[in-house]
Specification:
This is Putative adenylate cyclase. It comes from Caldisalinibacter kiritimatiensis. Keywords: Coiled coil. It contains five helices and nine strands, in the order E-H-E-H-E-E-E-H-E-E-E-H-E-H. It is of the alpha+beta class and 182 residues long. It has one domain: Hypothetical Protein Pfu-838710-001 (Beta Barrel), CATH 2.40.320.10. It has an eight-stranded antiparallel barrel with strand order 1-5-4-3-2-6-7-8. The longest helix has 10 residues.
């Protein structure tokens, strides 16, 4: 699946949620996630493929369900908007998959948790992410669209400051605040 996304930094979570509600966006998810990133010792997936392997544990706080998603995410480009390809599948045993990956010389490089609140408006997905302090200390809004023109529409709908819109990855944002790469 291809995705187009940006992050909006320097947000006030409550204010963004009020703006989303005021335009008629629908709350579609409220989750607690644990994201575990795997790579080889020499970081082949990150360095050669501009991506990562992730097991995401998603605890759906609205429906009291938990699922595990295994993802390969690769960045195709980062010019104004991040263009990524994601290949993912559900798994039912996180521990078993972790052991398989370890046997393949893929080690845990980072594990972080976050709260994610997601709203949908037409074909635009708005996701408010709040990571644990060690992963990234500031909340941000992620906007995912299918067409680049919807990105401009999303920015206008919420009256966002364009200076706060970035195509940077979480890895890049972490480096900027002195936390090091993932």
């Amino acid at each position: 699946m291809k995705e187009l996304e940006v992050k909006v930094l320097n947000i006030d979570k409550e204010e963004i949620q009020e703006r989303l509600k005021s335009i008629g966006a629908e709350l579609v998810k409220k989750e607690y996630q644990v994201n575990t990133i795997f790579d080889t010792e020499d970081r082949i997936i990150k360095n050669e493929h501009k991506g990562y392997l992730r097991i995401r544990e998603k605890r759906d706080l609205l429906n009291n369900k938990t699922e595990y998603i295994f993802t390969l995410k690769k960045n195709l480009s980062s010019e104004k908007v991040r263009k990524n390809v994601e290949i993912e599948t559900k798994v039912d045993n996180k521990d078993a998959l972790t052991e398989i990956l370890k046997h393949l010389k893929l080690d845990i490089k980072h594990s972080g948790s976050k709260e994610r609140i997601s709203y949908k408006y037409d074909d635009i997905l708005f996701e408010i992410d709040t990571w644990d302090e060690d992963t990234y200390p500031y909340p941000y809004l992620e906007i995912e669209v299918n067409k680049e023109e919807d990105l401009e529409r999303a920015i206008e709908l919420l009256n966002l400051n364009r200076e706060d819109v970035t195509d940077k990855s979480l890895d890049q944002l972490r480096r900027e605040v002195g936390l090091g790469g993932l």
